[in-house]
Structure prediction request, 183 residues.
Amino acid sequence: MNTNRLSKTIAEALNAQMTKEAHASQIYLSYGAWAESRGFSGISNFFFRHAAEERNHMMKILEYILKRGAIVDVVAIPAPPENPKNINQCFERVFKHEVDNTKSIYAVVKLSLEEEDWATWNFLQWFVKEQIEEETMAMNMLDKMKIAGGEKASDEALLTLDKDLEHTPDDARSAEDVTTAQP
Ligand code: FEO
Prediction:
């Protein structure tokens, strides 16, 4: 008896998104290693923690595909891009990666809507919400970088930024979690 409840198109799209999350994890891993080699251990720590978070996203999709009785296709993960030139460019890229990933998730949401696959649509809402946090996190990093002086940031400003990111929570708070007591 065939227990698969995902269409071929949805299964392929989810498998591709699963690999994209694995790719994101590799990107953060490479940025973390690069930052550490430049002496920015706080930034590096932040990226290593985030690499683990992306891997959890990958696992979440993998488990969902299996739960729906479809086939998980574990394929090669593309290599991360070359190392950034500086911290400013690194944070700009992080923002771009997250916005690109949001677009990719939206495309799968659209597919699930077209196919009236409400289980997948509902499952993906977690990712839609998560991406709001991820983009906010990336935007906050860019803001901090701008305050530090952008491309012209002094070593002292970068050191302060590095210390700050060591303790920055992995996720930014999303708008729906904000209250008047905890803005
Ligand atoms: Fe899994 Fe940063 O998106």
